[in-house]
């Protein structure tokens, strides 16, 4: 509510308004007013000298300009009145209270006293936003008077927590006056430009200098973050995906200031491999022994294996094989084999042969005294005397074919009457033991027939046919 204050030669009007945000800060019209105020300061001094000269000047003007003495005195009075101090409009801000003041006083403490505002030695006075002593005259272009009341705040730093009584207007000035140097990377809560109020807690953590070691080079940064990950993110070096840091991103900043960033990526490698098919044999009594018929062709399957490869700073450090998946299963090969005994007739070298089976076998030769035993041996598994006409086969065949008559072109007729070491041939030559035959000779007519020969199994067939021949 407006009120008038009479104080000596002043006539002060104070008006309280709700806010100072809409005040006019345009100083473009201050230059003429500044010159006028300088003139006001000099007016009292000039008044004394002008009054003394008035009577002399009045007589002189009468004789020169013919102006009456009374008229001159009236003009002089008007002039002197114009030289008296004029009220100045000021805005006084005290916390949330804003006052509009019109006063001829020029000392801040007098203006505040006229407005009814008291200040203490701990308070701070700002004129146009700049610190000013309360007992010194205002500058010519003073427009705003602001009081920063001393308040108690709590300052939290790495050194601990302590109370501070301050009249600094902003958080940044509180720290500056407390002797702390602020950097852009420091942690400050609330921000530096925040106005100070009673009971405020100010937390300040200075930035630490860090050296970040990466595969592309070292980077020096400053950070006040609470963790390694936050410091890296704030410096534009965030950990992405599988990236990791030493120390870990959740740990506090290291005392030695050294942080290593390891860029990690993974790649998948697809490996394909074939799955061999199996062969299934189906016996048929309607098909001749030795004959085969493909009922279903075999087809290899396809399997896919994923291998995960881990790279750290583009160097492979590990690989792991994930579960194998079958893209295409193999198709079983089904073969129909005959079990029917069919006797065939063929004439070879003038010999007519009636045989039920014929096959290629790898032949070796031996005689009683050339059997590899270190002496002479005439005995055989069947009891027959070793020599020409007695042949040996692997035990797996002998059990089925003992006494079976055969015919070998170039050798003649013989009977299966002995066993031998077919596994030796299988190990040394890689030939199946079921396809090996040892031709017997007499010591005085040993003929080297080593190699592949045709063996005719003569009728009649045995009661049980070896599975390997079916």
Structure characterization notes:
This protein is an alpha+beta fold. The chain has five domains: 3-147, no CATH class; 151-205, Ubiquitin-like (UB roll) (Roll); 208-262; 267-337, Resuscitation-promoting factor rpfb (Resuscitation-promoting factor rpfb fold, Single Sheet); 341-469, Barwin-like endoglucanases. Helices cover 19% and strands 41% of the residues. The chain has helices at residues 30-65, 69-82, 108-115, 171-177, 228-234, 395-401, 422-429, and strands at 3-7, 10-17, 88-94, 97-103, 124-127, 130-131, 144-148, 151-157, 160-166, 187-189, 201-205, 208-214, 217-223, 244-246, 258-262, 264-275, 279-288, 292-296, 301-312, 315-328, 333-340, 344-348, 351-366, 390-393, 405-408, 412-419, 436-440, 451-458. Helix 1 runs antiparallel to helix 2 (69-82). The relative contact order is 0.07.
Q: How many H/I helical runs?
A: 7
The main sheet orders its strands as: 1-2-4-3-7-5-6
What can be said about the biggest beta sheet? 7 strands, mixed
The count of strands amounts to 28
Please state the average pLDDT score.
82
Tell me the domain tally.
Answer: 5
Quick tags:
single chain, 470 residues, alpha+beta, Ubiquitin-like (UB roll), 5 domains, seven-stranded mixed beta sheet, six-stranded mixed β-barrel, 7 helices
Summarize the structure.
By secondary structure, the protein is of the alpha+beta class.
SSE topology:
Layout: E1 3-7, E2 10-17, H1 30-65, H2 69-82, E3 88-94, E4 97-103, H3 108-115, E5 124-127, E6 130-131, E7 144-148, E8 151-157, E9 160-166, H4 171-177, E10 187-189, E11 201-205, E12 208-214, E13 217-223, H5 228-234, E14 244-246, E15 258-262, E16 264-275, E17 279-288, E18 292-296, E19 301-312, E20 315-328, E21 333-340, E22 344-348, E23 351-366, E24 390-393, H6 395-401, E25 405-408, E26 412-419, H7 422-429, E27 436-440, E28 451-458
Parallel strand pairs: 3-7, 8-11, 12-15, 17-21, 23-27, 24-26
Antiparallel strand pairs: 1-2, 2-4, 3-4, 5-6, 5-7, 8-9, 10-11, 12-13, 14-15, 16-19, 18-21, 19-20, 22-23, 23-28, 24-27, 25-26, 25-28
Helix pairs in contact: 1-2
């Amino acid at each position: 509510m407006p009120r008038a204050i009479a104080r000596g030669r002043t006539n002060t009007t104070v008006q309280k308004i709700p806010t100072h945000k809409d005040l006019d800060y345009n100083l473009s019209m201050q230059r003429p007013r500044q010159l006028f105020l300088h003139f006001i300061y000099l007016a009292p001094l000039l008044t004394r000298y002008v009054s003394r000269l008035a009577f002399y000047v009045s007589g002189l003007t009468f004789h020169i300009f013919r102006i009456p003495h009374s008229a001159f005195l009236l003009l002089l009075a008007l002039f002197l009145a114009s030289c008296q101090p004029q009220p100045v409009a000021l805005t006084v801000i005290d916390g949330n209270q804003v006052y509009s003041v019109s006063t001829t006083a020029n000392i801040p403490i007098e203006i505040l006293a006229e407005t009814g505002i008291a200040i203490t030695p701990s308070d701070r006075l700002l004129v146009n936003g700049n610190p000013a002593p309360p007992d010194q005259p205002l500058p010519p272009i003073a427009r705003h008077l602001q009081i920063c009341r001393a308040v108690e705040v709590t300052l939290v730093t790495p050194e601990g927590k302590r109370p501070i009584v301050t009249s600094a207007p902003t958080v940044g000035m509180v720290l500056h006056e407390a002797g702390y140097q602020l950097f852009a990377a420091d942690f400050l809560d609330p921000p530096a430009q925040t106005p100070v109020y009673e009971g405020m807690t100010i937390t300040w953590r200075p930035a630490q200098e860090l050296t970040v070691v990466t595969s592309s080079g070292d980077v020096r940064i400053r950070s006040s973050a609470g963790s390694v990950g936050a410091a890296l993110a704030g410096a534009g070096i965030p950990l992405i995906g599988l990236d990791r840091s030493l120390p870990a991103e959740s740990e506090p900043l290291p005392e030695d200031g050294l942080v290593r960033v390891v860029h990690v990526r993974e790649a998948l490698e697809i490996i394909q491999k074939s799955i061999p098919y199996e062969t299934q044999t189906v016996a048929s009594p309607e098909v001749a022994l030795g004959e085969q018929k493909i009922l279903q062709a075999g087809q290899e399957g396809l399997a896919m294996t994923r291998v995960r490869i881990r790279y750290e700073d583009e160097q492979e450090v590990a690989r792991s094989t994930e579960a194998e998946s079958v893209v295409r299963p193999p198709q079983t090969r089904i073969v129909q084999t005959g079990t029917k005994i069919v006797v065939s007739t063929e004439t070879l070298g003038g010999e007519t042969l009636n045989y039920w089976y014929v096959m290629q076998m790898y032949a070796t030769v031996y005689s009683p005294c050339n059997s590899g035993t270190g002496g002479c041996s005439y005995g055989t598994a069947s009891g027959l005397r070793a020599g020409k006409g007695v042949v040996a086969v692997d035990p797996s065949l002998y059990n089925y074919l003992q006494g079976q008559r055969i015919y070998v072109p170039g050798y003649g007729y013989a009977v299966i009457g002995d066993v031998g070491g077919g596994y030796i041939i299988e190990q040394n030559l890689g030939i199946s033991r079921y396809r090996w035959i040892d031709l017997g000779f007499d010591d005085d007519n040993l003929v080297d027939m080593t190699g592949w020969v045709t063996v005719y199994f003569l009728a009649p067939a045995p009661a049980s046919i070896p599975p390997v021949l079916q």
